[in-house]
Design brief:
With about 270 residues, this protein is α/β, with parallel strands linked by helices. It contains 11 helices and 7 strands. The chain has a 5-stranded parallel β-sheet, sandwiched between helices. A two-stranded antiparallel sheet has the order 1-7. The protein is globular.
Length: about 270
């Protein structure tokens, strides 16, 4: 697992180190975060939870798509953040929340795109009120299998471009099937220990990857990026499992709480 972590880091560093700018992505992400909560609290806006309470249906449907983080690798199903978040959503809305976890261990954005494109989940997407997506980590890991510097450098931009294209296609297809669904994307986080010599570099470079997620979300109304890096990071290693990559039970609880708290800050038009 340590090899995987360093492989992931290497491909990020190799690809992004060729860029002249490092700090701009984080600046742009911060700007996009502010834009996502531009609607002020007025009598014409409501919280997203009030929106769900007002829906003319007795039950809410939550669909989760993506990789092992979604699947809950290493934890029990009821400890997974998908389950925890759904439970909290039920409490806050006063409605029964059904959730479907379609996460697949090891899944890449290309594989998720194929599943969505083939229509395998059309029925679940159509009835979902909330769709949570975590994808991309395995795209980088697969690119990191070849540790040759030159080839890794040549391939990184293509990996990032393909990921962004796939995520955009997935989002577009979801919105085509269900334009009213609230879509939540999770950031890619840095699982490295701060004592690792390359930690600070990775922490500055990962925003270059995450900015793609924010830009896709901006292009598709009703989408929001969950700031996973706030709770899964070098200052919160207690939230990682023994493999040093996946969230443990504490980590999943932290992600669920983060999702709820972030959604509490969102205001939407009462007409929605």
């Amino acid at each position: 697992m340590k090899i995987l972590k360093y492989s992931l880091l290497l491909i990020i560093i190799i690809g992004i180190s060729s860029a002249a700018w490092i700090y701009y992505p984080q600046f742009k992400i911060n700007k996009l975060k502010q834009e996502s909560v531009t609607v002020e609290k007025t009598e014409n806006t409501i919280s997203i939870f009030e929106h769900f309470r007002q829906l003319d249906q007795d039950e809410i449907y939550h669909l989760a798509l993506g990789d092992s983080v979604i699947r809950g690798y290493g934890v029990n199903e009821n400890e997974n953040f998908v389950s925890r978040f759904s439970h909290q959503l039920s409490i806050l809305t006063g409605k029964k929340v059904h959730f479907s976890n379609a996460g697949i261990n090891g899944s890449t954005s290309n594989e998720l795109m194929s599943i969505i494109k083939d229509g395998q989940l059309d029925a679940e997407i159509a009835k979902a009120n909330i769709i949570t997506i975590n994808i991309g980590g395995n795209d980088i890991l697969k690119g990191a299998k070849n540790l040759n510097y030159t080839k890794a450098l040549e391939g990184f931009n293509q990996i990032q471009s393909t990921f962004t294209e796939n995520l955009s296609l997935v989002s577009s297809r979801i919105k085509q099937i269900n334009p009213n669904a609230t879509v939540l994307f999770l950031e890619l986080y840095n699982p490295m220990n701060p004592n690792d010599s390359l930690y600070s570099i990775a922490d500055r470079l990962l925003p270059k990857w995450n900015i793609n997620i924010y830009e896709v979300a901006k292009e598709h109304p009703g989408s929001l990026v969950i700031e996973t890096t706030e709770v899964i990071n070098g200052k919160n290693l207690q939230n990682l499992s023994d493999d040093g990559i996946h969230p443990n039970s504490n980590g999943h609880a932290a992600i669920s709480e983060l999702m709820i708290n972030q959604l509490k800050r969102i205001r939407i038009s009462a007409a929605v």
